[in-house]
Amino acid sequence: MEKYYSKIKNSPLFCGITDEELERMLKCFGGYVKKYEDGDMIIRQGETISKIYLILDGEVNIEKETYWGRRIIIQKLYANNNIGLSLVASKNVEANINALCVGHALILILNYDKCSTMCQNACMHHSVLISNLFKILSKENIELIEKIENISQKTIRDKLLTYLSNEGQKHKSNIFEIPFNRQELADYLNIDRSAMSFELSKLKSEGLINYKKNKFVLKVEI
Amino acid sequence: MEKYYSKIKNSPLFCGITDEELERMLKCFGGYVKKYEDGDMIIRQGETISKIYLILDGEVNIEKETYWGRRIIIQKLYANNNIGLSLVASKNVEANINALCVGHALILILNYDKCSTMCQNACMHHSVLISNLFKILSKENIELIEKIENISQKTIRDKLLTYLSNEGQKHKSNIFEIPFNRQELADYLNIDRSAMSFELSKLKSEGLINYKKNKFVLKVEI
DNA sequence: TCCTTTTTGTTGTAATTACAACAGAAATGT
DNA sequence: ACATTTCTGTTGTAATTACAACAAAAAGGA
After folding, report:
1. Per the CB < 8 Å rule, is B145 touching A68?
2. Residues B202-211: contacts with CB under 8 Å, at least 24 apart
3. Alpha carbon distance A142, A198 (integer Å)
4. What is the pLDDT of residue B118?
5. Which residues does B125 contact at the CB level (< 8 Å), separation at least 6?
6. Average pLDDT of chain A?
7. Is A70 in Cβ contact with B154 (below 8 Å)?
8. Which of B152, B219, B66 is CA-nearest to residue A191?
9. pLDDT at A115
10. Residues A88 and A49 sit within 8 Å (Cβ to Cβ)
């Protein structure tokens, strides 16, 4: 557990909390680290969630399956991100997503019930933590709206250009790597993979973008 | 101002806060009520937001305009909802949406800066408020994911069925009113209005749904 | 009431997409 | 290095959609 302290300390979740406080809080919240392997379900649609999941290492896809069996990728999460945070606030809310491990991952798991009841008045750190939770959810909210913008474009071309432009702005650069392979990107943008590949080629041949595997270059201002 | 107290008191934002506390907090946060008319911009894309907006009465559309000039309706908000809450957490974040008044609306406006600095240690209500903020954002998060589910369906038919099914579940009934007119619903689901009308007619003729104006009846389990 | 405006429904056509099937490239394991 | 598997790109066709143009219905105002 101790070997993860530095990682945990630097997460937005524990931002503004000192080392000794952190140690006490982790005990208080029954914190432990769990390993997941490729394909493992960390959160399953329909479950009731009362734990806070913090990714220490690895990659997690937030997905949904349609009634007709198609996969929707809502977002991809990395180290320092929380999984399903919006589900712990209200008890009796069923998870509306699946959280799937991609490759190996290390997840810190905290008991939010203990966090919210035992510390309500006792811990002065509780207010720092809940303030952090608010900030984290705010960021996630903004990212979800960005995703809505991406997939709300009319054509495959517009979806790609909007997505790539947004990624460029996030990286503050015209050169960046995207976190998806082609099939994942298609499932994220809700389009057919082969049609997407075709459109990417077209954009490349027109000189608007360049790419090799996951590395993209934007040659235009959108 | 006093005449709005009962409305304000019953909002999720001030849940768990007593009457006297509320009065003190409203003064402390420089709270005031502002009237908006149809088409007024409450929040404009690109602005930096440092105020909390609480809808006391009326209807507000959260929208985005695409690069190509098309309207995207992200969500429709009503009394007791907050506008752009995710924007106040981090200063220097530019609004990624427009908030437009639909018809008349009454909005309570609070100064979040005062709320977060002055009360950091002084007010014990601050922690209640920030806990409420977390819960509100959680709910919004879940709704955004639901919207993503709706618009991620492949065909117009699937989008309509998914949307109507989700609305039915929310109302816990097969009979319910939707908050959108046809054009708004099309802009919410990112589809063409006329094509949507055509598909609605088809669903009605097939006996899967029934509707008249905004009142819908689901005749199947989805 | 009548007229005007707004909203909703209908239809045909051009554009776009999904899908399937396959080829080529890259990655992986032995 | 080779075989195998996974990932990416290409193409043709059927299905779906956007768009425009218009008709019908409903709502609102004088």
Report:
1. no
2. B202/B157, B203/B157, B203/B160, B203/B161, B208/B161, B209/B164
3. 30
4. 52
5. B17, B21, B25, B119
6. 92
7. yes
8. B152
9. 59
10. yes
Closest partner residue to B152 (CB to CB) among A72, A90, A140 is A72
The helix (H) or strand (E) run that includes residue B211 is strand B209-212
Q: Look up residue B102 and give its two tokens.
A: 């639909």
**A55 - beta bridge partners?**
A107
Comparing B92 with A76, the larger pLDDT belongs to A76
Other Cβ atoms closer than 10 A to B42: 20
Q: In the 161-190 stretch of chain B, whose C-beta falls under 7 Å of nucleic acid strand C? A: 181-183
Average pLDDT over residues B6-29: 90
CB of B194 within 7 Å of some strand C atom:
yes
- Which residues in chain A are contacts of B137 at CB distance < 8 A? 86, 134, 137-138, 141
- Chain B residues 105-164 within 7 Å (CB) of strand C: 154
Name the band, by pLDDT with cuts 50, 70 and 90, for residue A68.
Answer: confident
Name A residues 139-168 whose Cβ lies under 7 Å from strand C: 154-157
Select from B131, B137, B147 the Cβ nearest to the Cβ of A148.
Answer: B147
Q: What is the mean pLDDT of residues B85-89?
A: 95
Contacts of residue A149, defined as CB under 8 A and 6 or more positions apart, other chains included, come to A162, A166, B64, B66, B72, B96
Kindly list the residues from chain A whose CB atom is less than 8 angstroms away from the CB atom of residue B127. 126-127, 130
B101-112 pLDDT, tens per residue?
Answer: 999 999 999 998
* Cβ neighbours of B198 (radius 10 Å): 12
Q: How far apart are CA A80 and CA A207, in angstroms?
A: 36
Distance from chain centroid for Cα A59: 8
B144 → closest Cβ in A135, A139, A141: A141
* Residue B81 contacts residue B10 (beta carbons within 8 Å): no
Return the percentage of chain B with pLDDT > 90, whole number.
78
State how far residue B112 is from chain A, nearest Cα, in angstroms.
13
Mean per-residue pLDDT, A194-204: 98
In angstroms, how far is CA B18 from the centroid of its own chain? Answer: 25
- CB contact under 8 Å between A149 and B90, yes or no, is no
| Alpha-helix residue ranges (DSSP H) falling in chain B | 5-9, 19-28, 112-117, 125-151, 156-171, 182-189, 193-205
- Check: CB of residue B67 under 8 Å from CB of residue A162: yes
